[in-house]
Amino acid sequence: MTALVLLAANLVVAGSAAAVEDDTGTVLPMAGFDSLIVDTVHDRLFLSGGSTDNKILVTDLSGTAIGEIADEPSATTLALSPDSSTLYALLPGQGAISAIDTTTLSEVARYDTGGQAGTADRPVPTSLAFSAGRIWFTYTQGDSGGLGSLDPADPAAPAARTELGQGYTVQSSPKAPGTLAASFKVAGQPELDVLDVTTGTPRITAHAPGVWSSRLVITPDGQGVATDVNGVLRLTDLSRDTDYSSFPRGWSLDGFAFAPDGTMAVEGWDGTGSLVHESVVTEQPQGTQRLRTYDFPDFQSTGITVQDIAWTPDGSRLLSVIDTMGTLRLHELLRPRAAQTSMGITYPNLILNTGTALPESGGVSSALPFSAGAVIHISRADAAHPSGVVLPDAPLTSDGRFTFRDTPPGTGTYTYHVRYSGDADHLPSDTTATIRVAKVLSIGTDAGSYTYGATAKVTAHLSVGFTGGKVSLYAQPAGATKQLLKSGTVDSSGNLAVSYKATRATTFTAVFASSFNYFATTVTKSVGVHASVHGSLSGYYTTALYGSTSYPVYHHTAKQKYTVSVAPAKPGACLRLLVQHYYSRSWHTSKDLSCVRLSATSSLTYSFSYTGPVGDRFRVRAESNPQDTDTANLPTWSSWGYFMIRT
């Protein structure tokens, strides 16, 4: 395949290929093609026909033909005068250069480049430029050649020639007045020269032996010259300004062009159909960055080759002349300076536990930073919602990072579509991530609540297919830190069990560690634990058996003492005391104290007396956490303490 690479400066960032805007383009009524030049004054394109056409086609900037200049046999290189009033066309087979009025589109003069027509040693012009009021051309003449010039005001005047070696290409720019860059071969060895032509006589100001380029382009600031092999060289001394070291060996730059702001477009291939993926841009001291790559269809199967490229005057479009099996087209690449973006999510296909929140993260790579307020759009699709459920947008950082959280509503397969819409400086991009949600990990206990000090059996279970997985079990009692109880591989049934002595409300946690294919999964189970409340009576003088219940017996003048202790210790906490009297064949509450405070030792002794009928029966008990303010332990009643009153 062939490709166009657009570059600017600062940071090298890879990205996916930009979408194809137009693979067809406008058909050009030409039998052949050699050179494209943009007339920025008249918003026109001039296209020479090369060795297989005898005209120069004139189109608007979209490739629509508006005229042609006939009888320009085998025209190749084109050049414009600085005011764009005259187009010069090289006619190598004629040994001539024609001058064309860009308003009337008619030839107004033809200049002879020298030598006797029809002779074997006649100089053959090879390239063309305009500078310092003169027409300049390189030429070859057998094993020699050089640089020639013509006075456009005097078509009859003979060409002036300076022998410098076999001349191949010459380039000028209004931004570098009176300066030419030209490549030659001297005794078979290549060289690149910078020449001062302000006086009309060429003078070499910089010389680089061993440097060869079949195409030269002077940079928009007039400070450098881009070559197809040796990078961008400074016009002052031909020292290296920016190189092409990022290109793999063997890659060929078939064409390049500069936008007015210095953005460089490069077209090329490696000879086998692979893509050109990166190159350089000039005038940016921080380095290079690729904005985007445009891939033409595979020329090996469709026959597409890129003949030449050029920017529109405002830099908003990049024009390419392409040849598809002999049909020439003008292709327009829109928004060529908008940076290519490539979106990625940082994990592969995953299995999550049901109810697990998905902390998704990823990034949008681009050569240019993202502006404040940039967001990505997210949707989640499943079998029940194939068109997707829209989720809240996620902000994009200036360097392209994003995060969001979502909890899939149940088991099944979910596809997250993450999309960046682009802006004036960035092309859009999107990606998807598919996640399978199953109940992978669960945790259970042998009871929902426990008495104080009881042993809880805690079991973590991995679903079928995950046997051999490693699970860790933790316990976190209320008010305490989490502690690891056990870590290990589940058994053949997928279980890992542990025993734990419970003294207060506890949250048990099972963790299935993350791996390449699976997200770290955590599940919890909380259990309540009753407090231990123990009460005892004292101060009685004997006991009596009533049915199967033993009753402490008090004198009617004695005080009954009821002592209560609570574990775990809860100094200052409230206890509820309840005293009941048995009569009329049932128990009736005679005292209900809602809050009696525990001492510093988490105990209390309550004294009370009864003057009721001798021989009556009573009972007493205590409740911890009567006001439900204790989160560590569940409310708990002590057992009843029975007693009797006698004389």
Notes on the structure:
This protein has 647 residues and is mainly beta. The strands form 13 sheets. Strands 46, 47, 49, 50, 52, 53 and 54 form a seven-stranded mixed sheet that branches. It has a five-stranded mixed sheet with strand order 30-36-35-32-33, with no helix packed on it. A five-stranded mixed sheet has the order 38-44-43-40-41, with no helix packed on it. A hairpin with a 4-residue loop joins strand 3 and strand 4 (44-48).
Low-confidence stretches: 1-23, 272-287
Q: What share of residues are in beta strands?
A: over 45%
**Number of helix segments?**
1
For the record, give the distance between the C-alpha atoms at the N and C termini, rounded to a whole number.
115 Å
Main beta sheet:
7 strands, mixed
Query: Which of globular, elongated, flat, extended, rod-shaped describes the shape?
Result: rod-shaped
What is the rounded Rg? 46 Å
Q: What is the helical fraction, as a range of percent?
A: under 10%
SS elements, strand count: 54
What number is the mean pLDDT?
86
SS-based class: mainly beta
Task: List the SSEs and their pairings.
Elements lengths: L2 E6 L17 E2 L7 E5 L4 E5 L7 E5 L4 E5 L8 E3 L5 E6 L4 E6 L4 E7 L11 E8 L2 E8 L2 E7 L9 E4 L2 E6 L7 E8 L2 E8 L6 E7 L6 E3 L5 E4 L4 E3 L5 E3 L9 E7 L5 E6 L19 E7 L3 H4 L1 E8 L5 E8 L2 E8 L6 E5 L4 E4 L4 E9 L8 E8 L2 E11 L5 E6 L5 E9 L8 E10 L2 E5 L3 E2 L4 E8 L7 E8 L5 E7 L5 E7 L4 E7 L8 E9 L2 E7 L3 E5 L2 E7 L4 E8 L6 E10 L2 E12 L5 E6 L8 E8 L11 E2 L3 E6 L1
